[in-house]
Write a structure and sequence with these properties.
Radius of gyration: 11 Å
Largest sheet: 5 strands, antiparallel
CATH class: Mainly Beta
Number of domains: 1
Number of helices: 1
CATH topology: SH3 type barrels
Strand order of the largest sheet: 4-3-2-1-5
Order of helices and strands: HEEEEE
Protein backbone atom coordinates (compact mmCIF):
# COMPACT_ATOMS: atom_id res chain seq x y z
CA UNK A 1 0.00 0.00 0.00
CA UNK A 2 2.84 2.43 0.78
CA UNK A 3 4.19 2.17 -2.79
CA UNK A 4 0.77 3.21 -4.10
CA UNK A 5 0.65 6.23 -1.80
CA UNK A 6 4.26 7.12 -2.70
CA UNK A 7 3.47 6.93 -6.43
CA UNK A 8 0.34 9.08 -6.09
CA UNK A 9 2.21 11.59 -3.91
CA UNK A 10 5.06 11.79 -6.44
CA UNK A 11 2.52 12.39 -9.21
CA UNK A 12 0.97 15.24 -7.27
CA UNK A 13 4.30 16.84 -6.42
CA UNK A 14 5.54 16.54 -10.02
CA UNK A 15 2.13 17.44 -11.52
CA UNK A 16 2.16 14.21 -13.53
CA UNK A 17 -0.81 11.97 -14.24
CA UNK A 18 -1.06 8.59 -12.53
CA UNK A 19 -2.75 5.51 -13.94
CA UNK A 20 -4.54 3.56 -11.24
CA UNK A 21 -6.07 0.12 -11.16
CA UNK A 22 -8.80 -0.07 -8.51
CA UNK A 23 -11.99 -1.80 -7.43
CA UNK A 24 -15.08 0.38 -7.78
CA UNK A 25 -18.08 0.35 -5.42
CA UNK A 26 -19.53 -2.61 -7.39
CA UNK A 27 -16.24 -4.53 -6.95
CA UNK A 28 -15.38 -4.22 -10.65
CA UNK A 29 -11.72 -3.69 -11.53
CA UNK A 30 -11.26 -0.35 -13.32
CA UNK A 31 -8.20 1.30 -14.89
CA UNK A 32 -8.11 5.07 -15.37
CA UNK A 33 -5.70 7.95 -15.79
CA UNK A 34 -5.92 10.50 -12.98
CA UNK A 35 -4.63 13.91 -11.93
CA UNK A 36 -3.59 13.67 -8.25
CA UNK A 37 -4.81 16.44 -5.92
CA UNK A 38 -4.73 15.04 -2.40
CA UNK A 39 -4.82 12.01 -0.13
CA UNK A 40 -7.13 12.89 2.75
CA UNK A 41 -8.28 10.54 5.48
CA UNK A 42 -7.39 7.43 3.48
CA UNK A 43 -9.10 8.73 0.33
CA UNK A 44 -7.43 9.62 -2.97
CA UNK A 45 -8.91 12.84 -4.39
CA UNK A 46 -8.24 13.10 -8.12
CA UNK A 47 -9.55 14.15 -11.49
CA UNK A 48 -10.63 10.97 -13.25
CA UNK A 49 -10.25 11.01 -17.04
CA UNK A 50 -12.65 8.07 -17.42
CA UNK A 51 -15.48 9.84 -15.57
CA UNK A 52 -14.37 13.36 -16.56
CA UNK A 53 -14.89 14.68 -13.03
CA UNK A 54 -13.36 14.95 -9.57
CA UNK A 55 -13.64 11.66 -7.65
CA UNK A 56 -12.74 10.28 -4.22
CA UNK A 57 -11.33 6.75 -4.22
CA UNK A 58 -10.62 4.89 -0.97
CA UNK A 59 -6.89 4.09 -0.98
CA UNK A 60 -7.48 0.46 0.14
CA UNK A 61 -9.44 -0.10 -3.11
CA UNK A 62 -6.42 0.88 -5.25
CA UNK A 63 -4.58 -2.19 -6.54
CA UNK A 64 -1.76 -0.44 -8.43
CA UNK A 65 -0.57 3.05 -9.37
CA UNK A 66 1.90 4.02 -12.12
CA UNK A 67 3.36 7.43 -12.98
CA UNK A 68 2.69 8.10 -16.66
CA UNK A 69 5.24 10.90 -17.11
CA UNK A 70 2.58 13.19 -18.62
CA UNK A 71 2.30 16.61 -17.01
CA UNK A 72 -1.03 18.27 -16.24
CA UNK A 73 -2.17 21.80 -15.45
CA UNK A 74 -3.97 21.63 -12.09
CA UNK A 75 -7.71 22.37 -12.09
CA UNK A 76 -7.64 22.70 -8.28
CA UNK A 77 -5.10 23.20 -5.52
CA UNK A 78 -2.67 20.28 -5.30
CA UNK A 79 -2.14 19.36 -1.64
CA UNK A 80 1.00 17.21 -1.48
CA UNK A 81 4.12 18.19 0.45
Amino acid sequence: MSNIVETITAGGMLKETVEILYRDSNDRVVTTETEPYEIRGGTYVCWCYLRNRLVDIPVPRIIDAVLLGKSYTPRFEVKFD
